[in-house]
Amino acid sequence: MAIETIIYALLGGILPALVWLAFWLREDYKHPEPRGLILRTFFFGMLAVILVLPFQKMVDALIPGMTVVTILLWVVLEELFKFGAAYLGGLKSVEDNEPIDPIIYMITAALGFVALENTLFLFGSLVGKDIIGSVITGNLRFIGASLLHVVSSGIVGFSLAFSFYKSIKTHVILTITALMVAVAFHTAFNLSIVHWGNSGAMLAFGLVWIGTVLLLLAFEKTKTIQKKTIA
C-alpha cells in the first residue's frame, strides 16, 4: 500500500472539510472560540466515525440490506455520536457562553466527522485504482455529504442557541426535538440517494442547499438573541 494513497485520501478528505470550517467560523468573527477547542471538537468529530462504525456494523448484521430501518438506525447513531463529539469538544466548556457558540461547536464536530468519512470513501476508491471515480466522489461528497452533516448538526446547534437562556426543561425538550428533526432530514437525504436514483439525488442536493441557506439565516437570528428571552 503506497504512502501516497494514504496522503491523497487524507488531503482529499480533510482539506475540503477545513475549507468549510473556515467558512462557518467567519460567522463568529466578533467573539471567536478558542482554536484549541475548535481543533479538539474537530478531532472528536473524526474520532466519532471510528467509534460509530462497530455499532453500524451491528445494525447491518441484525438488519441486512439498505432497508429504511437500517438507514434510520445508522442516521440515529451518526447524529448521536456527532452530538457527543460536540459536547465533549466544546459544549461542556466554559467557553460555550453565548448563543452562537453551540452552532459553531456542532458544525465543527460535523465537519470533523465529514473529514474522516470522506477520507475513508476516497481511500477505498484510490486503493481500487479508480482515480477518476475518486475525484468525482470527492467533489460530490465535498458538496453533498459535507452540507448534509453541517445542516443536520446545525439544526441541533440552533435549538441549543435558541434555548440558551431558557429553562433546563425547555433546553432539553428543544434539544431532543431538534435531534429528531436532524435525524428526519438526514434520513430523507439518504433514502433519496439510495432508493430514488438520479431524481432522488437532485432532490437530496436541493434539500441540503435549502438547508444551508436556512442555516445562514439561523446564524443571523442567533446573533439577535438576548438574555431577556429567559423562559
Automatic annotation (TrEMBL):
It comes from the Bacteria. It holds the Pfam family PrsW-protease. GO terms for molecular function: peptidase activity. Keywords: Membrane, Transmembrane, Transmembrane helix. The chain crosses the membrane at residues 6-25, 37-55, 61-81, 102-123, 143-165, 172-194, 200-219. This is Protease PrsW. It comes from Candidatus Zambryskibacteria bacterium RIFCSPLOWO2_02_FULL_44_12b.
